Each structure stands twice: as C-alpha cells, then as structure tokens.
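The records we work with from here on pair a chain with its fold. These numbers are not coordinates but entries in a learned vocabulary of local backbone shapes. To see the layout at work, look at the sequence and tokens printed below:
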Amino acid sequence: MPQNYLINKKVNAVCIDSPSIDRGSDGNFPVHKLLLNKEILIVENLCNLSEINSQNFTLIMIPLKLSGASGSPIRAIAIDKNFSGNWETG
C-alpha cells in the first residue's frame, strides 16, 4: 500500500491537491488514522502545485491557532532553495 511506503521512508508530511487522502466513500478514514498514528502530517487541498519549478524547495505551512480542532486551514508557501532574485509582488 502506498501509505506503508511513505511510513517506511520516514516522511514528515504528505501534501496533496485533493480534498482527502482517503477515498471519498470511506468514512472510517483509515489512511488518516494510519499516518497520524505515525505522526505524519497530512496537508490536503493544496493548489498551484504546478507553479513549483524545483524539487529542492522549503515548504512553510502557517495554520490558524484553533482551540479543540483536529485541523486548520493553512497558508502554504513554497520557496525555491535556489532562488536568488527579487520577489515579485502583484
């Protein structure tokens, strides 16, 4: 199973551009439970991943501080480690 591969690789997080890492029809959330029990962070619903032009980047995830919540919306920022130019603002 793909999740076992990720566990064996000792990843810190799994980030995807889909609404859920589990199948939509499975309300038991087995992949969530398996990864979270191994302390692997799950980040879902990312967008503009095609804009990341490097495999060598730093991902910064800034969550909201929510009391009693099991998750949070985040601001995700990918910074190319080879970047040496000016920031474009728009």
